[in-house]
Amino acid sequence: MKKTVFILLLIPILTFGQDFLIEFDRYNPIYTFKWDGYEVPNDYEVKLEFVKYVDLNGLLEGEKQALKMDDTQLRHEIRAVDLNNDKLADIIYQGPYMGEGSIIHLFIQTESGFQKVFTTQQGIVKVDWQGEYLDKLYVKDWGCCADPNLTNSVYQVFYSGSVPSFKLIWESTELRSFVTKPKNIFSSKRFEIANQKYKLRANPWIDDETVNEFLGITGNTIGILKKGHKGTAYAAHEDETGRVWWYVLIDREYEVEDTYINYENHKFKPHLVGWISSRFINEIKN
Questions:
Q1: Is pLDDT above 60 for 15?
Q2: Is the pTM of this model over 0.85?
């Protein structure tokens, strides 16, 4: 009963795919979903069984070394949750590994042991359920080392029998900690750029002088948009000069010019997040 109530409170109403950005903006960049309230009643026994399986099959060796813990402590880094409604507890590992940052592994319990079905870096921030089945994963990759990017990804879960597979259906990229976040959201607006050259900026103000040594750029311009590029606006901010800026998500089919972003690093071309002046754009009416 507790699980059903929690799901009803958690699931958002998404009018279209681009509203995923609003879901991600609800969480700080390094928030991770804890699976509280979803673990099976016999989680202690299942965790012991999984740890034994890991030892017998030489799994998660790098993760155990990174934790600098023995098998008993590894048990505290995993969660036992029935993800696919087959009445068998599955395992989620979310923690460090031999490298920078964090990693997530999902293991499905089968009659012969545990099958790894999904791996991603950094953290899951939110999940959606379809009845008793895992339906979507919302993943944040806040990068590590000198990576300035924050990447948000949504995976749709499909099932072949009781075995899930995960398809990337949406992704956005933004400057981690450099993009100003709006305090208030309005009803989303579709728009089209009306000028041939238009700057997508990290903040709702003009800055062409400040040197950002970390990014190796001057000013707050993320890239140059072209006339006809489209996107969705979610918020507005008026600067000291009276100029109104829109907080926007650029459609993923467009690549901005003169940008530090390397599109080749993304298997799935991402939406870009930033701010644009609202002076020379045309609102697209539905």
A1: no
A2: yes
